[in-house]
Design goal:
About 55% of the residues lie in helices and about 10% in strands. With about 350 residues, it is of the alpha/beta class.
Length: about 350
């Protein structure tokens, strides 16, 4: 290695504390901006190039760089999104936080020939603006540039496999293998697009469900599934029953996840949101009375909201003519198998009978 490159390595060693500060800032800013936007991503990461890696790079093309500040990938960050179209959303966040060196940034999605498939990602070269961080003891934090790479999960998979197989080595591949690579890359691009289409379809469906929640008659036309149930829960349909039960002892409510009970509702034969609305109409009073008798005379400070949903299911089993064996099956589905389930099921059926006869 010549003296010029040795000098750059010397700069690198002295600059490592600055790059450590930069790494922390970049991760904090990226994670904060993404979290605030509400966007879900697969990964946010950053690394500082090892000295051995930099030395290898300088050996190959050290004369390209006048000083360490010309090397833009000493600090590299990466954001991996779940969907290809989210890359542009993250890009907008980056542009709002960092100073972008547009001359050296590149969108590899745009430069790839239209008849070719392959490595697709967006590369930004950036600086940390003084509005984000400024310390007179570390002025180079605002001078040194760094790179941010944006790509989807499938684009990331392609790039990693391509790198692992040494596809970009100096040895050209036979035409047959090159064709196989291009076919696989094309399939991944299609998969990226299809995942976006599926997400769009789900969002449209959820929008339709939200609009239909305002019309009780329309609920019979909405199948009970994970997406529709989740949207229905936004209207807090179980809350009146939960509060009614909690008021028996003035207990504080500890929230349970109502999604846990979806399989139980379907097991009970609820196939639409209309069925769920009728469940609340028909079984809420019995569900309340079950809890009322169980809590009466007891000093209960905390009430778990899931008890209301369990009691709804028990009441529905009873109204369908179910017996203790059926309730035991329900308990095992919701709470897991246990030695006390059989006796608890018998007591619940007896309690329902007592309440209905009263």
């Amino acid at each position: 290695m010549d003296k010029h490159c040795e000098a750059i390595l010397g700069e690198y060693r002295k600059a490592l504390p600055d790059y450590g500060i930069m790494q922390d800032i970049v991760l904090e800013q990226l994670e904060g901006a993404i979290s605030e936007s509400g966007l879900a991503v697969n990964a946010v990461a950053a690394r500082i190039k090892a000295e051995e890696s930099l030395a290898g790079k300088l050996d190959l093309k050290g004369q390209k760089y006048r000083a360490l500040a010309d090397v833009t990938d000493i600090l590299g960050a990466r954001v991996v999104t779940y969907f290809a179209d989210d890359v542009d959303e993250v890009a907008r966040l980056i542009e709002s936080v960092f100073e972008v060196d547009w001359e050296n940034s590149i969108d590899k999605r745009a430069v790839l020939d239209p008849d070719r498939f392959g490595y697709l990602s967006l590369h930004y070269v950036c600086r940390i603006p003084k509005a984000v961080y400024h310390n007179a003891a570390h002025p180079n934090v605002n001078v040194y540039r760094f790179e941010i790479q944006l790509r989807s999960v499938l684009q990331h998979v392609w790039a990693e496999i391509q790198h692992d197989l040494g596809y970009k080595s100096s040895y050209p591949l036979p035409k047959e293998l090159t064709r196989e690579f291009n076919r696989l890359a094309g399939l991944l691009e299609i998969a990226d697009e299809e995942f976006e289409n599926i997400r769009g379809g789900i969002e449209e469906y959820c929008g339709q469900v939200r609009r239909s929640l305002k019309d009780r008659a329309a609920l019979d036309d909405i199948s009970l599934n994970e997406a529709s149930y989740d949207q229905w829960l936004t209207s807090s349909p179980f809350e009146p029953l939960v509060q009614r039960i909690a008021s028996v002892n003035g207990a504080d409510v500890e929230r349970s996840n109502p999604l846990v009970y979806l399989d139980a509702f379907r097991w009970l034969g609820k196939g639409t949101l209309g069925d769920m609305a009728r469940l609340l109409d028909d079984d809420s009073d019995l569900a309340f009375e079950i809890a009322h008798r169980q809590m009466q005379g007891k000093d209960i400070d905390i009430f778990f909201s899931g008890v209301a949903l369990l009691n709804l299911c028990v009441a529905d089993v009873f109204h369908q003519g179910g017996d203790a064996a059926r309730v035991e099956e329900l308990l095992e589905m919701i709470q897991g198998k246990g030695p006390r389930n059989a006796r608890k099921a018998e007591r619940l059926i007896e309690l329902c009978g007592e309440i209905e006869r009263a």
